[in-house]
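Q: I have two molecules that I believe assemble together. Could you output structure tokens for the complex as a whole instead of separate predictions?
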Amino acid sequence: MTTPMQTALAAPTIPTHPLAGQAMSGAEIVVQVLADEHGGVVFGYSGGAILPVYDAVFRYNAEHRDAAGHEPLPLVVPANEQGAGFMAAGYARASGKVGVALVTSGPGATNLVTPIRDAMADSVPFVAICGQVPTSALGSDAFQEAPVANIMGACAKHVFLVSDPQKLEATLRTAFEIARSGRPGPVVVDIPKDVQNTTLKFDGNSHLPIPGYRARLNAVAAAKLGDEACASLFTALAQAKRPLIYAGGGVVSAAAAPALTTFAETFGIPVVTSLMGLGDYDTTRPLALHMLGMHGTAYANYAVEDCDFLIALGARFDDRVAGVPDQFAAHARFIAQIDIDPAEIGKVKTVDWHHIGPLVAALEKLTAWGRSHAFHSDLSAWHAHLAQLKHDYAMNYNRDSPLIQPEAVIEAINRQTQGRAIVATGVGQHQMWAAQYFDFRAPRHWLTSGSMGTMGFGLPSAIGAQFARPDALVIDVDGDGSIRMNVGELETVTTYELPLKILLLNNGVDGMVRQWQKLFFKGRFSATDKSLRKKDFVAAAKADGFEWAQRLERKADIETTIAAFLAHRGPTFLEVMIDPDAGVYPMVSPGASYAQMITGPFIPSRSAPITPELAPTHMF
Amino acid sequence: MKHTLSILLQNESGALVRVAGLFAARHVNIDALTVAATHDPAVSQLTLVLHGDEGTLQQILRQVRKLVDVLDASSLSVVGSGMRSHLVATPA
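A: Yes, here they are, computed for all two components at once.
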């Protein structure tokens, strides 16, 4: 019998490394692999079990400064390892490169658990390197010992505990390979301190075999969309009167936005995107219907309700999109799905046609097939219908209130940034208003904790994004609940003199939870009211070194204050006191279909919404 | 319905925990589990019994195949009957 181990494809070969054969400590090998595979900012916090690596980074940077004095592997130190994790994730999301965090054992590693799970849930390429107690002390309840492989194993794409120093270099290279290949994700490498201190011979090109993973990856990467599959998809498309593209975060990961744009516009198929897919398709173009789902635009959700053909691209029918899978796109007679991950095909919604493979190649093949067969379908009635939906059910809010409406603030910023700023968010109402009211012209401009919904994500991920894109305008749109979770990172912004813009929409409440309490718990606002909290956010920002820190309280000052907030060259902090009763609408209640969407007081609805009290409260 | 899975696994630190943890995290109960050596000391053979509908089986198989240490995973079917019955891999 031949095992896959023996038949596995060899790792790709690269030219011999100039340092091959040199003696190095394990710590120096960690740093050299970081320089080879990453070569960018490293986010982390030092501690006992990772000291040798921090020392090796220090020496490497001292020896390899460029002519301008820049370090090749700048170390950025957060207030808390969770901050480092989200900075690495923000760096990765904004750049498409692997984010790297470097932390110590025990609490250093466990503080990374949330960012690692967050990166897994949103498919973000990430390598976390954790110090660990010496191998001789493993399992002895040593000082700052935690079972990192066990804890992270349940959260990450993969975890390595390097117990054999000879495998350290190969493990680190393989960690980067796993993080960025296939469906990207976080990989944790746990390195005992004695391994960091072992003298080893540097190879320069070693990888672990991982034959099963590599064989499956190669099979998916090589999967080509055949002519027959193209023909069957276009046969269904030819019969459709109301086709729709549902694009997700996989389009961003695959760098497939240009291929998607060409495909959609060649055949005139309108596009809705998931929260993670914002930026897949320029929201200002005529075929764009913006975001679908629980807080999607009414016209996007009605389009899903009305479509008779749906093609999901790098999208996974998450419960915030397809809360009731049977009723999602219920009138679609044909549902197609393309994804890189075989486990996502038909996981939630049964599909009539699917392809597992790289998205760019698949979309280019479909476009070429359709063009070469002169495919044409008259969709003018559908386009007219959608234009009417966009007109009749346009996004709207309480424009007459004397109080500042959060939507108006975001619209004011968007008028200046025109969909070209990088926007990071926390989680809650402000996140949804930002998703709804900003335009997104390109991928990697929208950094949000979509699947995990981690409050506190916004500020550190914006910091990471600013390091990845030093010349870009990066805005953290945050809420008063979310920003508190990692408020220590305000100081990180000024320490590194980042020109970050922080917009705090303060309603003195955990607004999204309050909205659910209002709808589903008869207005009993258990533990969500923050109005008696004493924190002066502007004073706090000033204490952390923000020279430009202001509070906006008058509706008449929105335009001028926003202009000054964005124009200031250094870091800015703007707290906006918003209407505490502002809600996020539309809203598809959990357990409800799109037809039962609540459009709220300011957007018309084309049907009577369900009574919220009837919504099953066990639904999440 | 009862299903039997056969999983070939690289003998790496924590590999068994990752398989068992995946089942726990995805809320699929393992009714029976045996781990055996193979002729290759770097590879273990897991045989695992679970209950669930066809959708559960397919989803857990696909998730198992995403584990980096897993070399191969398949569902086994009983072929034949009585003394002559034996398990063979079900075509995917």
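A: One point stands out. Chain B is about 25% helix and 45% strand.
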